[in-house]
Amino acid sequence: MSHAYYQLPNGRVAAIDGDCDFPPLHQALIEPNGLIAIGGDLSFERLLSAYRQGIFPWFSDGEPIMWWSPNPRMVLYPDELKISNSLKKTLKNCPFEIRFNSAFAQVISACSNTARAGQPGTWITADIIEAYCRLHAAGYAMSAECWLDNKLVGGCYGVKIGHMFYGESMFHHVTDASKVAFVSLVKRLKDQGVGLIDCQMKTAHLTSFGAKEISRNDFISQLSELIKSV
Length: 230
Hints:
Elements: E1 4-8, E2 11-16, E3 35-39, H1 44-52, E4 56-57, E5 66-68, E6 73-76, H2 85-92, E7 97-100, H3 104-113, H4 126-137, E8 141-148, E9 151-161, E10 164-172, H5 177-191, E11 196-200, H6 204-208, E12 212-214, H7 216-226
């Protein structure tokens, strides 16, 4: 099926709807970084198709759904996880109870409600929450959680397909809770044979954990091998 296109200041981007598939990744705009399509829906089938191609949704309330495939791509290899000395001390004397998948909806909702510097709102809309809860119910999304005195104080979540994991967001209400949840998740994923964690875009926070940028071509090549079991 051929695509209609939106004309943007920096080029044109595909408009998708119904059963229309995503365009080839080489058509993604350079600026903004990796915008490849606008429209479609957040159905279970659409989201799985997107992640299998290295594409993810990112948009705000009131905007159409926008789909992205950045180049370069920020990734973390589980074997290359770096833990700072201060975090090692926290992990050694960990005050938290670590749980997995016991409160996925609470984690994603908390990520949505957490204020972030430089971000006036959230991209984790009510529709996103509903869509990712469906993925979780089907076994494709997971959460890692830090509990203190039986209260959820930090966590992170993402999408897992085969031996590939796509990190989405994290939050904390207590110092280091999100970091402890993230490290616990990486270790769990490594034990499950996950070979690559998608971190999407470069940040200093992710770099401190050992994440690095690779080309989109390298990312897609590795992703394709890691999801073959599904």
